[in-house]
Amino acid sequence: MHTYLIDLLECPSCHGSLTWSISSQKDDRIIEAIARCQICTAEYPIREGIGIFLTPDLPRTDLWEQGGQQLSRLFSEHPEIEARLMDSPLSNLGPADQFFRGMALEERGEYSEAQRAFDAAMPELYTDDYRHCWQSQVDFVLEALAGGTNPVVDLASGRCYLVRDLIDATERPIVATDFSLHVLRRNREWLIHHGLYNRVSLLAFDARRTPFRDNSIETMTTNVGLPNIAEPENLLGELRRITSGQFLAVSHFYSADDSANLSALQGAKLVDSLLRESVLTAFREAGWRVSVRNSRHGLARPTPQGEILEGASIDGFPVVETILEWCVLEAR
Ligand SMILES: C[S@@+](CC[C@H](N)C(=O)[O-])C[C@H]1O[C@@H](n2cnc3c(N)ncnc32)[C@H](O)[C@@H]1O
């Protein structure tokens, strides 16, 4: 993480100020350090450049770590499955297996082969509408942020799709964040490999309890991050606390009369995060002024399942074909 962040950070547990002991720094990047809360004495390490501001009390399911572990367990118990997935010609695999092969290659650091697998998978995994509607939202965010110089904090950055585009399209410092240390470490390797790490800081924290001071963030983004955050009751209030400027959230919504998908989403406790009116109400109740920008509608289908990784899916939703609304929520 870069040194400019020191002025923006505080204890995520009690909001106390932090005392920094930096043991390794390269130019303006802190590599190894401990940040200690002056009030509750909690300690937050910076390891291999990643600031770790996770608190012990919030439960979290790190799907990236689980997925990686499941794949390596499966490969060690069934080497024949690994051989079929990794050694068959790419064009012989179904799209889900192509995607899983990409993920396994990325874990091994074989980035260009991984990209080839992802590129092959995408057109079959997602409808043209789905990809174009999504890309249109990302383009909207990039255009909105193109001119400025202040840092962008991206929430629930996952594999950094939006972050990669922000690096290309802007001159801004970027803070990629996620509660999964596993995915942040993988991102660091990917960004270094592609020569894109320079302006990026990586911070591990839970978006429901961030380590930022009140009103410290001028520009915040997320690329379909919000519906991935479970038990989001205080999420939008916490984001309101730390944001002084704008929050641009790439979002998609299900229609209120899409009963098949809504009842499946209900079962996964996701329905309130994926219905336009519930989300807008939640923003307003948390004190945001929010508007829907760049609305686009497009066809979405369930993603095909793996054949070699039998039954494994990329996305759980939609469960039946539907029309989704895509947009950027612009909140201030
Ligand atoms: C699938 S990603 C979204 C796509 C991503 N924004 C991109 O542009 O590539 C969703 C991420 O949310 C993260 N996540 C889920 N709950 C979270 C929480 N409470 N705080 C921070 N990150 C969270 C997951 O670890 C996952 O990486």
Please tag this protein with its features.
332 residues, alpha/beta, 3 domains, eleven-stranded mixed sheet, 11 strands
The CATH topology annotation of the largest domain reads as Rossmann fold
Number of strands: 11
Describe the sheet with the most strands.
11 strands, mixed
User: Averaging pLDDT over every residue, what do you get?
Assistant: 97
Tell me what portion of residues adopts beta-strand conformation. 15-25%
Helix content: 25-40%
Strand order of the largest sheet: 1-2-3-4-7-6-5-8-9-11-10
Structural class: alpha/beta
The stretches of 5 or more residues where confidence is low (pLDDT under 50) are: none
Number of domains: 3
Order of helices and strands: EEEEHHHHHEHEHEEHEHHEE
**Number of separate helices:** 10
Write the CATH architecture name of the largest domain.
3-Layer(aba) Sandwich
How would you sum up this structure in a few lines?
By secondary structure, this protein is α/β, with parallel strands linked by helices. It contains ten helices and eleven strands.
